[in-house]
Recover the amino acids of this structure.
């Protein structure tokens, strides 16, 4: 037989599609052609495959080899197709027996070793979903591939070993080649272990601590304003530690994005902790929402999926970058269009914005040292557009730490204590919201707040008055209600009382531009 | 004569014998013109065959076929036309073959034949 057929997976964003790899050996002068929209790195596969096969003891045919990747219209990129093409060619030359519905996902080294590739997790998920559960990957990717339920994963170190298992002639194969184990990536492991700073390092800041706890419990977006050095960043960094562990589905989503965007191809374990992203304020829209040449890659917003996206110095961001976040805040997903295709990445993150009160940063409290004109101050915070702030439930002014709190360090509550309360509050929420198809208070739409979850008249009296007076907009009214529900969940009450409403009002203390 | 030329010569001898054994008639050998040289000109039925012979002692420097690139093929086609002009022949059926002779000095040489390339 001069035709070989194997399978691989092409990733478009997080979605994978099964790709059929055909190889044909023609009776004409030696050449190697890859068809089916390969990119530059995929075209280089020819040389890798030829050398790898040669050095594994199963040289490729000295004829014209044509490899065709089907469907031809789907753009394919990267080195992950190496192994499937190599196996198809060996199959065409009758060097190995038919591989059936096995899916091959690995890059080849020139010496014939199998190298790990990015995005193994989403690729294997796609393969299993499409009904191809038998997957062959590089040994270094085997653990990650095995995370997918239902996948039957086989990890190999060398092409020779793999060919041997598929019936290649052991006389010819170079089987004694054992490549060195790839060094496990310590940075990745440390990030996975989750060394987030602890809440007990924060002295004083009673309001800030409370706001953070409420934000964690109800998954509310937060805006922290305050002078430089007040501890906005310190607080924000500690939010991921308060969030509960990710469920199975969420953990898979987060790990899949991580697998796709990690620069190293180190072994990846299932990520159970919510991720934390804090891009710099010079970041471009492509860096935040995803992009890049060819098929778009996930940006910071997607990497923060199911975790926290912290934008420090928020007014310093380009306005279009901030406004680009409105789509994911609404739908939990980012759809990016590029010439090479469209990719959709999940981006359901918790947004934390931090801002100085004015350009000089001194206009808090009495603001005596502030050198900014009132116009400058207004303009500064107005850079955070209304539609964006509309979705931020908690808007808190963080004051400078008082000397009393700073001088003698008190035993502050640790992250673990607060996280336990947050977990309990999340469970209350879920019991109430699951029938409505929701998970957290922050997601509850206004019609539900004023419909099935309507509170008794006396409870909401101060709110109603504020609305009447015009001190509160209708949207602001809903936000206070959402916060009140979270406060009730935290204190274990089934329904918010007037006190919760009062506290909630305090947490969305209006900033200059707040709605 | 240098060693590589001796090897090449022997390869062409072997190739000619191989083609004759296939039932072709050798009509010319080592025909030269300013453009280059044709190793073997043969007739396969009605078809004129321009054959290029590549001989190697081992695969250490690649397979003989790999030595025939795009430029070489184009030249062979030009040489085919030149040969026909020179002999005032019109051969509508014309093709270029490549013959690889692998002769490592032990036992019989291996001959591979690709018909009608490029």
């Amino acid at each position: 037989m001069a035709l070989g057929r194997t399978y691989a997976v092409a990733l478009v964003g997080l979605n994978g599609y099964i790709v059929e790899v055909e190889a044909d050996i023609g009776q004409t002068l030696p050449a190697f052609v890859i068809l089916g929209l390969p990119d530059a790195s995929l075209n280089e596969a020819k040389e890798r495959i030829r050398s790898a096969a040669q050095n594994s003891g199963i040289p490729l045919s000295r004829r014209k080899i044509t490899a065709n990747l089907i469907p031809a219209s789907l753009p394919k990129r990267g080195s992950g197709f190496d192994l499937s093409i190599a196996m198809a060619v060996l199959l065409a030359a009758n060097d190995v027996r038919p591989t059936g519905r096995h899916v091959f996902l690995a890059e080849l080294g020139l010496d014939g070793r199998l190298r790990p590739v990015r995005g193994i997790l989403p690729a294997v998920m796609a393969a299993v979903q499409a009904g191809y559960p038998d997957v062959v990957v590089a040994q270094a990717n085997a653990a990650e591939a095995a995370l997918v339920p239902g996948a039957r994963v086989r990890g190999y170190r060398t092409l020779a070993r793999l060919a041997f298992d598929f019936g290649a002639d052991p006389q010819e194969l170079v089987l004694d080649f054992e490549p060195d184990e790839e060094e496990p990536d310590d940075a990745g492991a440390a990030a996975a272990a989750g060394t987030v700073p602890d809440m007990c390092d924060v002295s004083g800041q009673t309001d800030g601590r409370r706001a953070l706890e409420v934000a964690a419990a109800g998954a509310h977006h937060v805006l922290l304003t305050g002078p430089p050095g007040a501890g906005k960043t310190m607080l924000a960094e500690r939010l991921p530690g308060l969030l509960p562990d990710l469920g199975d589905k969420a953990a898979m989503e987060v790990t899949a994005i991580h697998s796709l965007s990690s620069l190293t191809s180190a072994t990846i374990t299932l990520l159970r902790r919510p991720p934390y992203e804090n891009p710099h304020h010079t970041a471009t829209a492509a860096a935040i929402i995803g992009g890049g040449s060819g098929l778009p890659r996930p940006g910071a917003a997607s990497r923060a999926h199911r975790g926290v996206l912290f934008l420090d110095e928020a007014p310093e961001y380009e306005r279009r970058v901030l406004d680009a976040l409105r789509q994911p805040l609404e739908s939990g997903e980012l759809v990016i269009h590029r010439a090479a295709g469209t990719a959709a990445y999940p981006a359901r993150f918790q947004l934390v914005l931090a801002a100085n009160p004015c350009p000089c940063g001194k206009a808090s409290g009495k603001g005596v040292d502030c050198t900014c004109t009132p116009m400058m101050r207004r303009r500064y915070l107005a850079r955070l557009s209304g539609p964006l702030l509309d979705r931020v439930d908690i808007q808190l002014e963080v004051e400078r730490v008082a000397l009393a709190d700073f001088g003698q360090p008190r035993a502050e509550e640790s992250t673990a204590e607060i996280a336990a309360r947050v977990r309990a509050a999340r469970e209350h929420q879920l019991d109430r919201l699951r029938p409505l198809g929701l998970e957290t208070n922050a997601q509850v739409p206004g019609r539900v707040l004023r419909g099935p979850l309507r509170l008794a008249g006396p409870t909401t009296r101060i709110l109603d008055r504020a609305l009447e007076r015009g001190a509160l907009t209708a949207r602001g009214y809903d936000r206070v209600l959402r916060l009140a529900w979270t406060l009730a969940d935290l204190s274990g009450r089934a329904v918010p009382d007037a006190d919760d409403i009062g506290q909630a009002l305090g947490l969305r203390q209006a900033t200059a531009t707040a709605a | 004569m240098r060693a590589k030329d001796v090897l090449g010569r022997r390869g062409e001898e072997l190739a000619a014998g191989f083609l004759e054994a296939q039932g072709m008639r050798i009509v010319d050998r080592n025909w030269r013109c300013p453009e280059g040289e044709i190793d073997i000109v043969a007739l396969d039925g009605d078809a004129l065959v321009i054959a290029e012979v590549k001989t190697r002692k081992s695969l250490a420097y690649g397979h003989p076929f790999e030595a025939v690139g795009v430029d070489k093929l184009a030249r062979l086609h030009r040489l085919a036309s030149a040969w026909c002009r020179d002999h005032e022949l019109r051969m509508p059926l014309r093709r270029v073959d490549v013959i690889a002779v692998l002769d490592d000095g032990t036992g019989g040489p291996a001959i591979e034949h690709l018909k009608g390339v490029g």
